[in-house]
Amino acid sequence: MNSRVLLASLIIFSGAMYCMENSSDLTIDDFKPLITSHEIQSAIKRTAEEISRDYKGKSLTLVMIIKGAIHLTSDLMRNLTIPATLEYIQASSYGQNGTTPGKLSLFGIERLNLAGKDVLVVDDILDTGETLYETTCELRKQCPASLKTLVLLKKFPSDPKKHDPLNMKKYSDYPIFSIGNEFVIGYGLDYKEKFRELPDIWVKKN
Ligand code: 5GP
Ligand code: MG
Question: Could you read off the pLDDT of 141-152 as tens digits, one per residue?
């Protein structure tokens, strides 16, 4: 086999491998609707009212964990009736892994100045709790006046209906929905950087 033929075969082979890899990627057909945009908006409004009551007379510093909490933070902030400022940090553990977590990385904490501020960390979903635990440990070192957390979704291994809201408060100060131990996308949550734009939350079909 001459070198040109060998090179052409290699190109065709790697092209085929690339296509095979991508064809195994999930599409929207692999998901079904779980929580509607309407349900999300109503729940965020109720939570924003609760927060506005809890922090009455104070001003709040929201620390958004990007990228997943982008829509949540924006909708929450617009429903608050107390003054609020916005900061952000980045946490990533899924990356290109798709539906399985990898090593957690946090960026952007050192440039914040939270001393004496009432801080509310806003995250998309709490699974093992590692992201929120690590984040709050780091933020606490800056001596905020107070530090609380809000999560849109809390994952539970068994039937989420068995978990009452008081139990949810063990994990976060303002938990909004509880879900089963399944992979979800939409409303900021991604699969390999896709589907963040969806207004509803979708769950992977079994
Ligand atoms: P934890 O550190 O609590 O185990 O995981 C939290 C982070 O993992 C979330 O902030 C989110 O970025 C990611 N994550 C956990 N479960 C899911 C999921 O079902 N879907 C997506 N898209 N991300 C998830
Ligand atoms: Mg996240």
Answer: 999 999 999 999
